[in-house]
Every structure is written in C-alpha cells, then in structure tokens.
Amino acid sequence: MRLRYVPGQYQYLRNHEKAITEPEKTGYKLNRAFNNKNPIHVELGCGKGRFLRETALKNQDINYFGFEKNIKVAYRCAKCEYENDPPNYFIVYSNGDILSDVFEPESIERIYLNFSDPWPKPSHYKRRLTYKKFLDVYKVVLTDSGEIHMKTDNNDLFEYSVEQFKEDNWEFLMVTRDLHGSQYAEDNVMTEYEERFVSEGKKINKLIVRKNG
Ligand SMILES: C[S@@+](CC[C@H](N)C(=O)[O-])C[C@H]1O[C@@H](n2cnc3c(N)ncnc32)[C@H](O)[C@@H]1O
After folding, report:
1. Dist CA 129 CA 68 (whole Å)
2. What pTM value is reported for the model?
3. Total domains in the fold of the chain
4. Does residue 203 form part of some domain?
C-alpha cells in the first residue's frame, strides 16, 4: 500500500472513538477496553479494516482488535465509513509484536494473520509474523485452546509457516491451498487484499492451528 502522508493523522487517530494509539507506552491493558468479558479476537495487520468490521458485525458477542503498525494505513482504516459499523471492535495503531505487553496472559481466543507481509528475503524472515519469536508471544497471550487463523496468497510464506507451526508443536485443525475452491469458502470473510488476489485468479492458502496446552 503506497499511501500519502496526511498532516494531522496521528492526532486524528488519537481522537477517534474507535482507535487506540500506542497502548504499550502507557501500560494500558486492552482487556479493559470493553466493559464486558466477551472473548477477544485479534487481527494483526488489519489494513483498511474490511475483514475486522465485517467479522465484528457477524459476531457481536466477541471483542475485536485490529492492529495496524503503519500510521498511514491505520489512519485510512479509521477514516473508512461503514454503513453498519459494529460497536465491538477497536483499531489499534501499534506493532503486533507487543501483544504480551498489552494483553493479560492467556486472554486471547483467536489471532488472525491475513495476508501478512511476506518478507521474501531469508535475511528478513525474522520479520515474518510466523517467525518463532512471534509464535512465542502468541503462546503467552492465547488461551489454552487459542487458535491462529492464517490466510495468504504467498505460497512461500505459507509453506514456511506450516513448518514453523509443526516444529513448534501446534495442533493443525485445517489446511487448504485453495480456500475458494474448498468447503471452507462459504463462511469466508474476504479482506481487501484477498479480493484483489482472487479477482486476479490467485489461489488462497489458509490454515488454522491451535496452541497445544
Ligand atoms: C499486505 S497488508 C494486508 C492488509 C489486510 N490484512 C488485507 O488482507 O487486506 C499487511 C498489513 O499488515 C501491516 N503489518 C505488518 N506487520 C505488522 C505488525 N507487526 N503489526 C501490525 N501491523 C503489521 C502492514 O502495515 C500492512 O498494512
């Protein structure tokens, strides 16, 4: 996403009722953001937020947090206007690597990784959201039966991630290398990137893994 810098975008996010900015700097725990004890689902790299909002709208008894580390994207996400904007989500302008600083241990039921940046060079693998360092953070914040749902068009990132989860003893609940040609297509909520890739005829990979214990 090549986006223009817009003056005042940080202030806009700070004042936005659906946005939380840099919670790691204040020690604030996001578990307190909603006045209920509903399960928590997190999307890392929510982009412009279509998946976040549509999924929240479909599941109003779940609390959603969409993390976006790029301020220009987070700003666009907050700016998007939705007709049926649901009450049960926040956009978090922050890097997803701070999950264990801003959530209580074992308090997240599900993490979504939708079309994460592929970082194709081996020297950049440590930035991939399925690198071992990230899996260790996910294990701290996920509940005992907590899950990761990952979708990507990038076959290299997908096969790498399958191996990472296997080596780290996650339990596989589903794997498909053609989501839209599979039985799982029916319940699928598309993201912005996914819509583009599908329209170009690309196959979408998806996996669901569960933390083991
Ligand atoms: C390729 S885009 C996909 C956006 C959206 N999920 C979709 O499928 O349409 C990846 C997004 O993840 C964000 N991102 C990458 N790494 C992140 C991290 N560690 N924490 C938060 N956001 C991240 C990027 O800024 C970018 O906006």
Report:
1. 13
2. 0.97
3. 1
4. no
